[in-house]
Amino acid sequence: MLSSLTSGVTGLDSFQEQMDVIGNNIANLNTTGFKTGVVDFADAFSDTLQGAGTSTPAMQVGTGVNIAAINSNWSQGAITSTGVPSNLAISGNGFFEVVDPVTSAKYFTQDGTFSVNPSGYLVTSGGDYVQGYTGGSTTLGNVQVTSNPANSALSMSSFTIDSQGHINVTQSDGSTYLSGQVLLQNVQDPQMLTNEGNNLFSNFQAAGANAALGAPGSNGLGTIQSGALEASNVDLSTEMANLITAQRAFEASSKMITTSNEVLQTVVNMKQS
After folding, report:
1. pLDDT for the residue 137
2. Domains of the chain: which residue ranges?
3. d(CA 64, CA 6)
4. Across-strand partners of 171?
5. What pTM was estimated for this model as a whole?
6. Region for 7 from its dihedrals, namely left if φ exceeds 0, alpha if ψ lies in -120 to 50, beta otherwise
7. Which of 9, 131, 201, 209 is 20 to 30 A from 49, alpha carbon to alpha carbon?
8. How many Cα atoms are found within 13 Å in the side-chain-facing hemisphere of 61?
9. Element spanning 52, H or E
């Protein structure tokens, strides 16, 4: 009886965790670049009642269920147009690299909700600097959207970002200037990334990040689509179906505990009578 109680308790714990993951998925249905969480289950250690012989199989009773892993589904979400030239989506593999201006900590993100701050730098919604080549050089640093500093008489009238991340600024006299290039990073195992909140990821060295940033469209990296964002890859119908299944499994585990308790109570009453 105690074994069935243990199995029921592990079921309650595991299916509660699954519902937590599903709830987080549904809550982030409209979060830019969000990746669906997926729960993987594994059976718990089995008690061996009789070992396997040369002609007889082993007799074992399982003790419940464990959560083997909570991974992310890294498939790409739909790319939706915004019409804002500083909004960027990655079509294919890769992450944007950003730097916290206060701590200088580096993070990866697939949320391209960028804007140009008053100093002309391309920044995230949280104020982190987007990394890439600055000016017309190959110097890595904070990407800046500005007219040619060599001619201060010219101002910027507009800018575009192409599929390779080049920032082309149209100046007040109609001439163009290459203001910089947004670069991307790739990792070998994105499951090793640690979610830091605000759509930012760390632990990229353990995830097998490349030694250096790369140009979009090269070395297996995706291309950049300007004026667009990558939507969450959460499938609401799938999540609702998973939620119903988890709910039923939770209820069944609860019923298992209740039934085991009733049987134990019967045993106790037999002893007293």
Report:
1. 81
2. 2-50+58-75+234-272, 79-230
3. 7
4. 156
5. 0.88
6. alpha
7. 9
8. 9
9. none
Give strand pairing partners of 161: 167
| Exposed e or buried b per residue across 49-68, where buried means at least 16 C-beta atoms within 10 angstroms of its C-beta | eeeeeeeeeeeeeebbbebe
Determine the Cα–Cα distance for residues 31 and 267; give it in Å rounded to an integer: 54
More confident residue, 104 or 268: 104
Q: What is the number of other CB atoms lying within 10 angstroms of the CB of residue 264?
A: 14
The token pair at 10 is: 């592990």
User: For residue range 38-88, what is the model confidence (pLDDT) as tens digits?
Assistant: 999 998 877 666 677 777 787 777 788 999 999 999 999 999 999 999 999
CB atoms under 10 Å from CB of 117, counted, come to 14
Burial of 193 (0-12, 13-18, 19+ CB in 10 A): buried
Nearest CA to 44 out of 8, 69, 10 is that of 10
SS3 41: strand
Beta strand pairing call for 184-185 and 95-99 = antiparallel
Distance CA(171)–CA(217), nearest Å, equals 27
Tokens found for residue 2: 């105690």
Distance in angstroms (rounded) separating the CA atoms of residues 71 and 15: 16
The tokens describing 237, both together, are: 């119908």
Amino acid at 86: S
| Cβ(109)–Cβ(96) below 8 Å | yes
CB 23 within 8 A of CB 261: no
Asked if residue 113 lies in contact with residue 230, where contact means CB atoms within 8 angstroms, the answer is: no
DSSP string over 131-198 = EEEETTTTEEEE-B----TT-TT--EEEEEE-TT-EEEEEETTS-EEEEEEE-EE-BS-GGG-EEEET
Residue type for 245, please?
T
